[in-house]
Amino acid sequence: MAIAAVQSTLFAFIASSPFNALVAASVEEFQLNGRYEEALAECRTMFSLLGNEEVVEAIEQGYAESGYRGAMRRGAESLVAQSKARYVAPTSIALFYIHAEETEQAIEWLEKAYEERDPNLHRVGIEPDWESLHPDPRFQALLQRLGLPEVIPKNNALSEAVASLRVERNLASLKP
Fold first, then answer.
1. Is there a contact between 122 and 91 (Cβ–Cβ < 8 Å)?
2. CB burial of residue 165 (10 Å; 0-12, 13-18, 19+)
3. Structure confidence at residue 100 as a pLDDT band (50, 70, 90)
4. H or E stretch at 140
5. Does the first or last residue of the chain, that is N or C, have fewer Cβ atoms within 10 Å of its Cβ?
6. Domain residue spans in the chain?
7. In 10 A of CB 160, how many CB atoms?
8. Nearest residue to 89 via CA among 114, 53, 62, 126
9. Which helix (H) or strand (E) holds 126?
């Protein structure tokens, strides 16, 4: 029992360390710029540092089977399996699914994150990883329940028109 407590404390320390945050930021930067080989290398580093070789192996197996999306899907599946035995932040699982381009599973895990009060959920409205979900009404509803501002999808003529109307409405409300 004491060993498990020490391992849990050590895991929490490593997971919250500034170095791990830096590695996670590198993964995100590489992914967003289409540099998937580098993103996977950083992802392996991060999970190795966390002592989670199961995720590392799953990512490698998924990549060998079907490339980057497969790696992300397998990583998500590994975390889902682990979540049955220990706490895994639902946003972490959702993030893997979003990078696997599996919207339904990503939304499902974001909903679980909301139910479980995942402390990382407050960032979903601002982090670029979640941009593909911006047009989804379920994502917008989640933001509303969280009390976060609505996000307007980028590169969408309709969303630009809606934003323009909101500006006009706000300006009209300021008139005496």
1. no
2. exposed
3. very high
4. helix 137-146
5. C
6. 52-132
7. 13
8. 114
9. none
